[in-house]
Amino acid sequence: MTPATARLLTPRRLLMASVVVAIITITLKTLAWYVTDSVGLLSDAMESFVNLASAIFGLVMVTIAARPADEDHPYGHHKAEYFSSGFEGALIIAAAAGIIWAAGHRLFDPRPIEQVGWGLALSVASSGLNGLLAWVMFRAAKEHRSIALEADAKHLVTDVWTSAGVVVGIALVYFTGWLWLDPVVAIGVALNILREGFHLMWRSSQGLMDEAVEADVMVTIQRTLDEFASARGETQIIRFDHVTTRKAGQRRFVDMHMHMPAGWSLGRAAAVRTSVEQALMSAVPGLRASIQLLPSDVEAHFDDPRDLI
Question: In the chain, which residue ranges form alpha helices assigned H by DSSP?
Answer without folding.
Answer: 3-8, 11-36, 39-65, 80-108, 116-144, 147-176, 181-208, 215-228, 266-283
